[in-house]
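[Automated response] Your request has been received and processed.

Submitted sequence:
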Amino acid sequence: MKALVYHGPGVKAWEEVDRPRLAADSDAIISVDTTTICGTDLHILKGDVPAVVDGRIIGHEAVGTVTEIGSGVKKLKVGDRVLVSCVSACGACRFCRESRYGQCAGGGGWILGNEIDGTQAEFVRVPFADNSTYPVPAGVSDEELLMLADILPTGYEVGVLNGQVRPGDVVAVVGAGPIGLSAISGAKLFSPSLVVAIDQASSRLEAAKQFGADVVINNAEHDPIAAVRDLTGGLGADVAIEAVGLPATFELAADLVRPVGRIANIGVHGKPVTLHLERLWNRDVTITTGLVDTSSTPTLLRLLTTRRIDAQRFVTHRYGFDEFVHAYDVFANAADTGALEVVLSRAS
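Generated structure:
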């Protein structure tokens, strides 16, 4: 089969590799029908994720068809179409019993495209398949469902829920890429009084308006701290959500939040960040970090199937599997291409 393979920082290739085999009774082999590229994959290609070694197949999101199952798999059968979650859950460890699947101590967590081969391939082995896949619901396209593999649960859980967004809050989202837009969509479910999106790409700020941002600020042209304070009577945001993963964007989020406010960090950080405790220690500010657990996926599936959330609007570019390298270039240069989510599909 063919797959997108990492060969060290800055080096990737769509190349021939061995087809995966069952390695445990709880595994399933999935024929990947549709997959996508995540911002985390760009961090991997920069060398920011040390667990990813030369030869690893990247990717952790897919919709596909079950082609083989281990003897311990009870909920799936060959031919089922499923959403493959970005997080694998053993279901038995302490963290899984607490629905903290991202911290799975039984061999799961974020392993696809990280510690084991991932989904940017024609076939993928999915560990703990009963706990790590979801049936494709009727009336939902593959493209829509694919957004629930990672970005929508991430924005909702690590941004909105960790940030404790409440009715009437002012929410500032730093970064209007797919994760930031997911956080905006999730925040709107809690009736904030104002959602402010901050980015340096005009195309992404336009997208933020479509996703529900009330105010957009280009921080290459305007001071977002002054703007947010003007909007809040000098206080600052109730919740600041960091959705980029750079030192400067985290520090900006910390400067945007009001006393007794909350900072929810979503971004994947590959470099140390300065924490200005000299400015924060006496302001009763709460800072949260997190890896998505995907515990919200059933809730988001219900919201998707009842059309309370619109996942289709994330998709801006579509490619075949043989265009993977070009798709990466388009996604990595989103400020110029306007890309939000690029979807890659197996040829029919």
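Summary generated for your ticket: The CA atoms of residues 176 and 207 lie 8 Å apart. The chain is about 30% helix and 25% strand.
If you did not submit this request, please reply to this message.
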